[in-house]
Amino acid sequence: MKNFLDRHFILETLPPRSSNAEKYIEFCREAVESGVEIIAVTDLPMGSARVSPVAPAHMLVENSIEVLMHFSRTTRNAIRIEGDLIATHMLGIKNLLILSGDDPRVGTYPFSSSIEDFSIYDVFKLVNLLNEKGEDIAGVKIYGKFSFNPGGVFSPFEKDVSQTLERMVKKIENGCRFFVSQPVFSQETMVNFLQETEIHKRTKIYVALMVFESVQQLQYFSKVPGVFVPKEYFHQRDDEHLKWYSVKRTISIVESLSKYVTGFYLTSTTKDLDVIKQIAEAVSAQCE
């Protein structure tokens, strides 16, 4: 069986707003049959209330599907972060994408609190301490062996590349083993970032890809912080043209960037299995 970091294609999914996960698990199975190697499970994306990722991630593990579970810090206080990490590992979930998370105040409950007990580096440090010493930041012994595989996120679009690099290096120093980028729509931007920083020589990089299935979807996500969509996408005259332009552009990015990166991460904007299969085949052809 392949190690996580030897796999090349990750599909992001939204956990259901339901007490029943049958349709979700079935979709994930079909996605794996279509060429997906890892299923990513998001953690309250866009501040929307839905099932915690721990339950569906555990169910996927039980179905022998490789999982990358998002783990957000700003919806948890310090003791909840530690407790949830221990519970996550207990349920067999080892691969974590550690991130600050979307502001809960922009989602289902605008009065929700954004919690800053731990910085993002504190969470990486805690995970690393559990892995290396079996203890927490307070120095308290946590019994059992831990083998988390923690990853982080980054943006190649910031004007001050040195600051981005500094944050990535600090995460690496605190145990981060791989990174997923913000969605990339221009291979030139990513190539320039990697050539300037050479960070891909120090760690594993997965490039996030975004396929739009409708003009409405494009308009919504183009307003999300950190998503920078080129004007050519807005020139497509209807949903069908936009979708296939988006797929074509995505495959072109895969072909251009595969020699620099470990793999690719397709966001949850598409659930079309034919599209997922096309991109999986492109990734497989370039990365194997």
Q: Can you put this structure into words, describing what you see?
A:
The chain has 288 residues and is an alpha/beta fold. It is built from 9 helices and 8 strands. The protein has helices at 22-33, 54-62, 78-90, 120-132, 161-173, 187-197, 215-221, 239-257, 273-287, and strands at 9-13, 38-41, 67-72, 95-99, 149-154, 178-181, 204-209, 263-266. Strands 1-2-3-4-5-6-7-8 form an 8-stranded parallel β-barrel, surrounded by 6 helices. Helix 2 links the parallel strand 2 (38-41) and strand 3. The longest helix is centred in the last third of the chain and has 19 residues, at 239-257. It starts with 8 loop residues before the first strand and ends with a helix.
List the helices and strands and how they pair.
Layout lengths: L8 E5 L8 H12 L4 E4 L12 H9 L4 E6 L5 H13 L4 E5 L20 H13 L16 E6 L6 H13 L4 E4 L5 H11 L6 E6 L5 H7 L17 H19 L5 E4 L6 H15 L1
Parallel strand pairs: 1-2, 1-8, 2-3, 3-4, 4-5, 5-6, 6-7, 7-8
Helix pairs in contact: 8-9
